[in-house]
Structure formats: structure tokens, C-alpha cells
Amino acid sequence: MSKPDSVDLSAFSVPGSGRGILDVFSYGYLLRLLVRKGILTRYHGSVLGWAWSYVKPTAQFFIYYVVMGVFLDLSRGIEAFPIYLFSGIVVVNLFNEAFGNATKSIVNNKALVKKIYLPRELFPIADVFIAFVHFLPQLSILIVVCLIFGWVPTFVQLAGALLAIFIVLLIATGLGLLFGSINVSYRDSQNLVELILMFATWTSPVLYSFTMVRDKLPTWAFDLYMLNPLTSAVELFHSAFWFPTTSEAAERPEHLWFFAGISVVVALVVLLIGQFVFRKLEGRFAQDL
User: What is the DSSP letter of 149?
Assistant: First the structure.
């Protein structure tokens, strides 16, 4: 009996295999659908709708300003304290929303994960994009206020702001992939993420000046503090929005661009680690969900 002719399978791919984040770019249409769905449903059924994107950060700013600026009198040592405060808040808010939502993205989309194959990285990356869209109204408020105070930034300062956004989105994506994959099997990891988000506000110079940290810590400890990607991103935003509205007496961290470059490297390493762990655990997603 003759053997059957072999079938050419070169045009087919192994089900469930892929290239991770790189495959997301092949699903651009689906990514846009996920982002659009997240944006449209964010304030669905609410009276104010998208106005909440302006109301919530404004309310947050006033609370911090009254407590930190008035009651604790920190505004006395920081010129143009309202701009300093709000330019830091918008950066931390972007990180908190992107990282927090990406962590829950796989669990929130379990119906799709269990039924069809697609790059599961689509879900945390879509949530990071959604967080960026919600960040834009806060950024617009900051720009308007800065213009009122005579804001005239340089090209380098604006480039620094763009780099800060890139750092935040990169580190949030990496951490979102890491904790989003772990959260499928171990839901208490979400509690750890909430602790990280709580510390994010206080471990970066948002509510206080970096000089307070520099004056209290030895040089090596302050350098470690500046190596925090979120710290570098906040200071880049301060340099872009706060510094141009102050006098020459205002201080900026030395070697800020050096620390920003290190922060990009750290964020890339976190992204690679997050992708590695995600790829290792995604085979269990459908089962654990």
C-alpha cells in the first residue's frame, strides 16, 4: 500500500502561537475597537459624561493644594506651587490609571480570552491607550493654566515632556503585562498593585520638592531615588511646565537627562520581563479564568 502524499503545512501557523507584543500591530483594527469601546463606556450612563475627566483631577488638585500647600505650608518654599503640584499629579494619574487598568484587563475580558485566540497583550495595551486618552483633558487644563502664567517653553523642555509620557506609558505597559498575567491565577496580586499605586504618589516629587529629599539623603540614596522612572518623568514635566513659569531661582535636578535615559532603560527591562512572564503564563489564562 502506498503512503499518502504529505500535506504542505507551510502556509499554516500553529494555533495559539505568536510573537507577543509584536503581533499587536497586526491586530490594529481590533486594538482600535477595544480602545474605542473603553472610551465610550467609561462614563456611559453618567450625567456629566466626559466632564468627569476634568472634574476629578481638578478636585484632586484642590484637595492636595489645601492639605499640602495651605495646612502644611509647603507652598511657601515652592514658587508657582499650583503649577508644580498639578504638573506632577497628571503624570502620576497617567501611570496609576494605565498600570491599574492593565492589571485587571485580562480578567475583565475573560469572555473573549476563553472563546477565541488573539494576542492577549491586546487587552493591557488597549487599557494603556485608554489611559492616555483620559490623560489628554488633564494635560489641556495644565497647558491653559501655564499659558495664563506666561508659559513660554523651549523645544528641549517640550521634548522632555514627551519623553516623560513615553517613560510612563512604557513602564505602565511592562508592569501591566507582568501583574496582569499574574492576576489571572492569583487575584490577591491586585492588592499589591494598589499598594504600588499608593506609594507612587509619595515616592515621586509631586507633593513636595526634590530638594527636600536631596537635603535629607546621602548622595547615593538620592541617586537611587532619581533612578525611579516615575521620579524622572515627574521632574521632566516640572521642567517643561513649571520651570518656565518661575524665576531663575527655581532649582532643577542635576543630570536630569542622564537619569531620564536610565529610566528609559529600566522601563524597557521591565517591559521585557513583563512580556516574558506574560508569555509563560498565558497558556493557563483560559483554564484559570
Answer: T
* Spatial distance between the Cα atoms of 235 and 44, rounded to a whole number of angstroms: 35
Residue 171 lies in a domain: yes
For residue range 106-163, list pLDDT tens digits in order.
888 888 877 777 888 899 999 999 999 989 988 998 999 899 888 888 999 999 999 9
Which pLDDT score is estimated for 117? 76
For residue 146, being part of any structural domain is answered with yes
Per the CB < 8 A criterion, the answer to whether 286 and 187 are in contact is no
In the structure grid, which three cell numbers stand for residue 85, read together? 503640584
Count of structural domains within the chain? 1
Q: Of all helices (H) and strands (E), which one includes residue 50?
A: none
Query: Which sign does the torsion angle of CA 84, 87, 90, 91 carry?
Result: negative
Which letter, b or e, does each residue of 132-156 get, where b requires 16 or more Cβ atoms within 10 Å of its Cβ?
Answer: bebbebbbebbeebbeeeebebeee
Give start and end residues of each alpha helix (H) in the chain: 21-24, 28-42, 52-64, 81-108, 110-115, 122-148, 155-185, 189-202, 210-216, 219-226, 229-237, 256-281, 285-288
Are 129 and 105 within 8 A, CB to CB?
no
d(CA 205, CA 207): 6
pLDDT tens readout for residues 52-68: 777 777 787 888 888 87
Among the listed residues 102, 61, 91, 96, the one whose alpha carbon sits nearest the alpha carbon of residue 195:
96
The answer as to whether 118 is a domain residue is yes
Q: 10-14, 86-90, 165-169: which has the minimum mean pLDDT? A: 10-14
Residue 15 placed within a domain: no
Domain enclosing residue 176, as ranges: 21-38+49-288
